[in-house]
Amino acid sequence: MEEKLLRDTFGDYLVKVGKNNADLVVLDADLSTSTRTNKFANEFPHRFFNMGIAEQNMVGVALGFAISGKVPVVSGFSIFTTGRAWEFIRLASHDNLNIKFITTHAGIVGEDGSTHHALEDLSLMSVLPNLNVLVPSDNIELNEILDYALKSHGPFYIRLPRGSFPKIHNQDYNFTLGKPDILKEGNDICLIAAGYGNFLALESISKIEKELNISAKVINLPSIKPIDKEALIKEVNDMKAIIVIEEHNVYCGFGSIITRIITEVYPIKIKCIGVENSFGSSGNREDLLNFFNLNTEKIIEEIKLMLKINV
């Protein structure tokens, strides 16, 4: 059975929390049917605000709500919210305001068109002081992340896809801000990912280990920012090489952050697999993932080069 869309989980979560928190308000940019904030709007119409296609104004209003003691959740498509309203999100981060930016349609969205792919948002958000940047890998992790963000003071950016991700966690999973989540132990190569990249890594493991005769470790790092540097380095310091998988542009993205943290401490070969200095294209999501080399074949190719394996 196909997993529930993460944006549906998000919408249902807002309704659940809204019943117990009268200070929760939700703002959207005329996309509530797509982002699923319409579920909150139907239950709490007086606490939902459709700001129209005016992302800067939407975040500006959220600033006022936060200053007044409300807990605003700002939603919309990832590229439009982070791109059009970046300076206003910067103001929220500057004053460490209690605003939760939870956007959908991040990464490669498929048929929505090249303008709608969000392949730059992690760069835009991670550069802002005080802003926590989180990327869930399945619905279980998303619920944990939403719990943490709504119970914590301060600004958060949570990146959701258009579709669903296969389940990779058990129900007893606990999210810890900044900490690496070890999905599989291994000795030779380490695959580090967030979001869809974790499913791709786990899906590829069997073929990698069988074809290359190596042992591979998989680390889920849902906290793009902050990252527990000591904990991460402890998990990779005996690896021969590292591959970072990101559904994002590799320039100034997740992989760039990981590479800086690790190589400041010790030298190791690191390869980032993601979109290479390109905007998105329109088409089927699976076709586009292969077009941008986010697939098992690319991972194996890079491991062979890094470890100088001839098979």
What name goes with the CATH superfamily of the largest domain?
Answer: Thiamin diphosphate (ThDP)-binding fold, Pyr/PP domains
Question: At the first level of CATH, what is the class of the largest domain?
Answer: Alpha Beta
According to CATH, the fold-level topology of the largest domain is: Rossmann fold
Average pLDDT level: 95
Number of domains: 2
Summing up helix and strand content along with how strands pair, one would put the structural category as alpha/beta
Taken as a percent bin, the fraction of beta residues is 15-25%
Main sheet summary: 7 strands, mixed
Elements, N to C (H/E): HEHHEHEHHEHEHEEEHEEHEHEHH
Q: What's the arrangement of strands in the largest beta sheet? A: 2-1-3-4-6-5-10
- Name the poorly predicted regions: none
Radius of gyration: 19 Å
User: Ends: how far apart?
Assistant: 37 Å
Number of helices: 13
E-strand count: 12
Helix content: 40-55%
CATH architecture of the largest domain: 3-Layer(aba) Sandwich
Overall geometry: globular
What report would you give on this structure?
It is a single chain. With 311 residues, the chain is α/β, with parallel strands linked by helices. The chain is built from 13 helices and twelve strands. The strands form two sheets. A seven-stranded mixed β-sheet has the order 2-1-3-4-6-5-10, with helices on both faces. Strands 7-9-8-11-12 form a five-stranded mixed β-sheet, with helices on both faces. The longest helix has 17 residues, at 196-212. The mean pLDDT is 95.
